[in-house]
Design a protein that fits this description.
The structure holds 2 protein chains of 2 kinds. By secondary structure, chain A is mainly α. Chain A has 12 helices and no strands. The radius of gyration of chain A is 20 Å and the shape is elongated. Chain B has 2 domains: about 5-215, P-loop containing nucleotide triphosphate hydrolases (Rossmann fold, 3-Layer(aba) Sandwich), CATH 3.40.50.300; about 220-310, Alpha-Beta Plaits. Chain B is built from 11 helices and 15 strands. Classes of the chains: A mainly alpha, B alpha/beta. The complex binds adenosine-5'-triphosphate (ATP) and magnesium ion (MG).
Chain lengths: ~260, ~300
Amino acid sequence: MRAEILTSLRRVLRDHRRGFAIWAAALSAITFFYMSFWPTMGQAMVDAIEGMPQGLMAAMGYDRIGTAAGYLEAVVYGLLGPVLLLVHGIALGGRLIAGQEEDGTLELDFAAPVSRARLYWERLAAAWLLVTGLVAAITLAVLVSNPLFDLDVSPANVVAAGVGLWLLVGGFVTAAFAVGAATGRRGLAVGVVAGLAVITYVFRGVANAAGIEVYAALSPLSWFLRPDPLANGLDLASTLQLAAITLVAAPVGLWRFRRRDLMT
Amino acid sequence: MTTPVIRTRGLVKDYGRTRALAGLDLEVQAGEVYGFIGPNGAGKSTTIRILLDLLRPTAGEAEVLGQAPAAGGPALRARIGYLPGELAMPARVTAREQLAHLAALRGGRGSERVDALAERFTLDLDRPLRALSRGNKQKLGVIQAFMHEPELLILDEPTSGLDPLLQHEFLDLVRETSARGATVFMSSHVLREVESVADRVAVIREGRTVDVDSVRGLRARAGQRVSLTFAEAPDLAAFEALDAVRDVRLEGATLHCLLHGEPDALLKLAARSRVTHWAARDLDLEDLFMDVYRYGPDGVDGANGVRDAR
Ligand SMILES: Nc1ncnc2c1ncn2[C@@H]1O[C@H](COP(=O)(O)OP(=O)(O)OP(=O)(O)O)[C@@H](O)[C@H]1O
Ligand SMILES: [Mg+2]
């Protein structure tokens, strides 16, 4: 008899329920906290960046920080959200196969009547559920604080930005998961993908400051924020671009995972 | 003959430049309890992991229940109970949760036997795994391997970490399992741990099968260690020339040797001088076994067992 469906998925959720609850609470609290600065800080921001070098502000994504959408983008969607989610998510992605393979806690799962493909997809789906929950926590915090602190950003656009953030973070989590599954090395998976995430930030900064388009084209963070979802809503091309990270990384990781030795 | 439950032919496994298995041959028949013995690094765990399709062989073939492990896939693994050599368990869940998870991975099979087995091995199911001692984790490992009553049990050093009482309980469980017709393949460093239950034993060293025999056969080959004390030191060469005698040493006027087969020639030769004291002790299997361990295939010859390699 074969494994009951979703056994592996449920197991990941069980293992991470406590961590998830803490992260979800922390992310929504931090988001709310920063949003609450807007009424008092909005004008101060405009004044503060007046004297700053234009290029630097653009690189940081602070050039439009004087508008509500600009503030929200700079603080939540350009910085806090992705940074915190990527730090947590990449570590999670690296752990779900490679990390647990290295510490031996998956050995009995590997030896059970489950195919490697099934194990892979269920654990990856669980990672996506966790990411979905965390992005939802941020999105809810924004939606709730939006009217409270007079940001006046369209809720539909908040959801659109949430979708972009979700695909961006999910893409990096999937990449870490896939590299880990392909190699069985957690350190390698987390290192490589965290490195790519840093490059993504640097390239976006360079693209914004110096206007070099090649760098924007190479930075998933630019794919996400360039179309300005908080002002313009969902952009189809950008959404597909972000989804492509996952659609490429996931099958490649599985392809290697099915062929290699486990736990060596 | 029916198809063997486990069969390997010229199995080779390399880890990078390390050759862990160098052409291993095995054949385990249905219903056998089979001991798989070898020193550290001999390749026991590597072989076992190939049988479970955790590792893929570099060369040679392996078949489990008539199928290559990779081809058999989940359906084949559903018929096996596996106890890993180094058992790592997630820290936060309880033993009960972990066993429920493993049962669910087997389509729910085995969950109904958990309580009885936990009681038998005195395992508290409701403590988090982090709080369990090594022996308690090993109990959990044993329970999960047996609970779904598989046709084939593959156990990597199953008794490690169990106290003598539980080792005994475990061996009883192996006997019962064997009695219901299942095949048990278990590895160990020492023969002593498996000799009371095993029908046959394979000894491996440096990735090769060095010796295969029934436990009874091994016993018959083990021979006796004989000591004879003479009034005057005897002529060593005359004793060394005897067929059934090996490993002859002289310690003052006392002669020590290893005897296989009939003692007749030895006694007659000794009786030509005055013997003041004598002792003969059955060699236990462990001694025989240590020779195979140390000297490998060259330490054994087909006719007589242990050859003097010292
Ligand atoms: N992951 C690995 N990478 C490199 N070499 C390995 C790896 N695992 C095992 N080896 C080597 O392969 C050989 C066989 O190891 P294996 O674990 O199969 O031995 P074993 O008989 O189970 O030993 P033990 O009794 O210590 O458990 C050893 O030389 C070991 O060092
Ligand atoms: Mg081992």
